[in-house]
């Protein structure tokens, strides 16, 4: 049994949903389908989820965005009509959108989540109806009915362990099951969403729950590339990747697969295949527990900007037991999550995402560091970027760091930070964001050409 | 006015004390002298401080080490006689040693400190008497009278700010003042010692207090070398170093100058000169606030072994706000100080000195990490070494890391950790201790030959 997930561009139009159907018809093992909300049909199109957020946010300024509302309904109507689906399919979708809006109007804490979830929900309703029209045994399965139980956490919802047993029961159901991605329910029955792009997570949870033989993740590229194709032309395709390699790459800027989506598949050892909806014959990229030839070669280069460094120095810091802990405590008190915290003898840096430290929090954090830790200096540096090179076995191979640092030198990019040794499969470099493209190109040159 | 400090080998015998006297006589600015305890006269000799510790520890097993006691008294007697000093000098020294022993016997909490301090105290008594014999106006100044006020801290005594004003009054005294190094007093009048080698700290505190023009630190080498001469033959001498460079080098294995001794001089901007007692004409190494040509060149390579790594991994660690803080809290609770704590996405390492984590604490710490943080894995790796390359401006120079990593590759040494970015003047590398000499030699080659 395979669990198949289709991303936003793969379900953006009636034509794309027909292509999805043909992929499902091409392999009888493709029993469970998880779908995203309709994405962009072209570069100047709007994603349905963005439109739903626009509607939700319009209530903050007190006035419903009627234009966005019409756009969403029109998107669904167009697909419903082109696929020749019954009118009630559209009515159901519109009813759920209206219910989401009503929840926002009456101030429900999860109103926005309910409204945002309507994109994926609508796709699932349409696809299951279309499959039935084509005489398949197919059914829409609501995430609550499927058993996707979540816990609400500051960084986004996390799946509860008990979901997996409940999901296993889906194996008993006949026909093709279509499940909307991106959301689930708390134990108290409250709808909550994952972080953006969370349909990948739903797919992974379902694949883990039903113990699928394979989790196929259909997107709009033939495979995962070893580097961002927007920076390097025609980069090498990756045939095999380990879970750990993919997770590190996703974290540091690889947008092809959601950062956290691998975890459930990883834990139950379900292989994942990234494939192209519009070229399903291409082999794609397999993500597995172990691959051959893990001899320390670099397999991928990820890069991401939008980081901040807080640099703190104080004489005799290394004599103060608890200094590092107290610094991190201040961040925790203020709800600020950090990425790395390298320390020297009399200094310590904290690296975090810009989104984690809005201006008003920055002021509080910096003041508390000055006053409570009595530091000699605290400085904030913005516009930092992180570049990560990834490969199993890398930490055991002499000379990997040497190649990397040579590449930065070739690119004339100064290394503000090197973090190596905490992870066994990656090495991370901090630079000023302006150098990111030069550095990535040189790294590609030294490792792949 | 210059403050001059003489180390253990410089005061090991009557001959050496005569050499010290001639150095003092050679420059009328050398007004204040800080001395260590008599050190080794040859490679199979014992240091007086080691003998005093032996005596102190013998009481733990209930029996005074009479042999060590005789050895100490004989050492002092020999010097007193050779210098032709009055018998009462030896009687005073012996009286203070006996008082230290008596304090240990009656269970005084600082008995061991009082006994250990007798080495430096004896040298100061002898040197001041000898200077008087040679018709100099000279006096012994007790650290309590001088105003060296300390605070007792777990890692060793720290000087109190008010010491500096009191020490400034020494400028009013006439003649040469001889102060024993290594110890001071709490506000309550309790004698306490610095960590081992702490006479350097006394000298630095005194130099800062009297606002000396120069703090001359006499030892047994012509200058500070850019690398450990036990690893590289005839290494380059350093003419100028900044305080920050010296502090980082001292921390990571440069034993020529005590790790913390620079701080007081640094804070008051007193230049420090490291010189050779037995070749006082050599210019030595100047340690200053700023040096010319701080263009990012590496000026020194330090190395030290005896480190441990604790490696911890847990899925979704980066989603747990407070994980790093809670890990450090466990170490703090158990009184374990750490050196570095680099973190990845789902993993974190803590690097500490072996001395900071005795076996019985290791078990508690590992158990608490497993139970309280519910980690997936925790591993302890021993026999690690740290190598540090140091140079002002290094963090602004493209290509420094590239040269260093090339050297490790040449040496066929795998880099277990790179910590760059927390300090502005250094870069630190973690390796397995077996590769330390190969790596240091190659680093010397790439930076200095």
Automatic annotation (TrEMBL), chains A, B:
SUPFAM superfamilies in the cross-refs: ACT-like, Carbamate kinase-like
Pathway connected to this protein: Amino-acid biosynthesis; L-threonine biosynthesis; L-threonine from L-aspartate: step 1/5; Amino-acid biosynthesis; L-lysine biosynthesis via DAP pathway; (S)-tetrahydrodipicolinate from L-aspartate: step 1/4; Amino-acid biosynthesis; L-methionine biosynthesis via de novo pathway; L-homoserine from L-aspartate: step 1/3
Catalytic activity as recorded in UniProt: L-aspartate + ATP = 4-phospho-L-aspartate + ADP
Record domain ACT: where: 389-449
Binding site for substrate: 49, 120
EC number: 2.7.2.4
GO molecular function, one term: aspartate kinase activity
UniProt xrefs under Pfam families: AA_kinase (PF00696), ACT_9 (PF22468)
PROSITE patterns (UniProt xref): ACT, ASPARTOKINASE
Keyword field contains Amino-acid biosynthesis: yes
CDD domains, sorted: ACT_AKiii-YclM-BS_1, ACT_AKiii-YclM-BS_2
Keyword Nucleus: no
Broad class of enzyme this protein falls into: transferase
Record: residues binding ATP: 5-8, 219-220, 225
Gene Ontology CC terms: cytosol
Domain of life the protein comes from: Bacteria
Family: Belongs to the aspartokinase family.
Role noted for this protein: Catalyzes the phosphorylation of the beta-carboxyl group of aspartic acid with ATP to yield 4-phospho-L-aspartate, which is involved in the branched biosynthetic pathway leading to the biosynthesis of amino acids threonine, isoleucine and methionine.
UniProt protein name: Aspartokinase
Lineage: Bacteria, Bacillati, Bacillota, Bacilli, Bacillales
